[in-house]
Design brief:
Shape: globular
Structural class: alpha/beta
Distance between the termini: 48 Å
Radius of gyration: 22 Å
Strand order of the largest sheet: 3-2-1-4-5-7-6
CATH class: Alpha Beta
Number of strands: 7
Helix content: 25-40%
Order of helices and strands: HHEHEEEHEHHEHHEH
CATH superfamily: Vaccinia Virus protein VP39
CATH topology: Rossmann fold
CATH architecture: 3-Layer(aba) Sandwich
């Protein structure tokens, strides 16, 4: 059974092309790429062949090029820029066990079949190969979502999908395990960006190629009254004392390894040499007994 289409992937390509024409806003992906480089620098491993998957700019490739542990770097993305391999994140063309490292910055949140993409990434990795990625989390642009919902409810009597349903970090560890990754780790970074106005935020989103690309988006133009009410509500509820408004970006970090016999393995049930209660210095309470 095919996964539901949430994102219009063809429209995503067009939006990214438009962003390059406008002059892209790259501060967020640049920061994520720098953080990715710091995380990778702590891994004491060599990665002869690395893949930058779907990142919309060259930021990650530049960071990887500065890593002594990384050898050849290949980029793969849709046809919106000039990657080494033209590929969709939902249909990877790499053979099994061919890559040592796969990284991605702010791209996988727009994949319709994320579980399927993770399975393909794991298969493409060599045993003990590393996957490291950052994607937008569920609290991203929560202020904009709330302001639009209130404005549309008041002006138009209903709400239309405008901000993408990004992933919940609580689900990602399970998805990594289901995809076959060993030693999965997830964590969250929250970034608050301040703007002169909500209109300035929306201009930046357009320059990121990150405006509404939902399949179920409303096809009619945004009404002026709705936009005006959204701008007013946003400024009233999410502005600081100096009048600048806040925009939240939640970055979910994922990492996992392709399984290998050298990795740490959990003990088999019943093979522990010490009781947990003894290790913690507490009294063990049998099941059914009240503490």
């Amino acid at each position: 059974m095919s996964s539901p289409r949430v994102f219009d992937r063809a429209l995503l390509t067009l939006r990214r092309r438009r962003a390059r024409t406008l002059g892209p806003a790259t501060f967020l992906v640049d920061r994520v790429a720098a953080d990715l480089g710091e995380r990778l620098a702590t891994v004491l491993r060599e990665f002869p062949l690395a893949l930058d998957l779907g990142t919309a700019t060259e930021a990650v490739r530049r960071v990887l090029a500065g890593q002594a542990s990384v050898g050849r770097i290949v980029s793969a993305a849709a046809a919106d820029r000039a990657p080494d391999v033209v590929a969709d994140e939902e249909a990877l063309p790499f053979r099994a066990g061919s890559l040592d490292l796969v990284v991605s910055a702010l791209a996988l949140q727009f994949v319709n079949d994320l579980p399927g993409a993770l399975v393909q990434i794991r298969r493409a990795l060599k045993p003990d190969g590393l996957f490291l990625a950052a994607l937008a989390g569920g609290e991203t642009l929560s202020e904009l979502r709330q302001a639009f919902a209130r404005a549309e409810t008041e002006v138009e009597g209903g709400v239309s999908p405008r901000v993408a349903p990004f992933v919940d970090v609580r689900e990602m560890g399970a998805l990594l395990q289901r995809a076959g990754f060993a030693l999965p780790v997830t964590d969250v970074e929250r970034i608050t960006v301040r703007y002169a106005s909500p209109a300035a935020l929306m201009r930046d989103l357009r320059s990121m190629g990150a405006t509404n690309m939902l399949v179920e988006r409303r096809r009619t133009p945004l009404r002026r009254a709705t936009l005006a009410r959204m701008l007013e509500d946003y400024a009233a509820r999410f502005a600081d004392a100096d009048g600048r408004i806040r925009a939240s970006f939640e970055i979910v970090w994922l990492s996992g390894w392709a399984p290998h016999e050298s990795q740490q393995q959990p003990l088999r049930p019943g093979t522990a040499r010490m009781r947990l209660a003894d290790a913690l210095g507490t009294r063990e309470i049998p099941s059914g007994e009240k503490p």
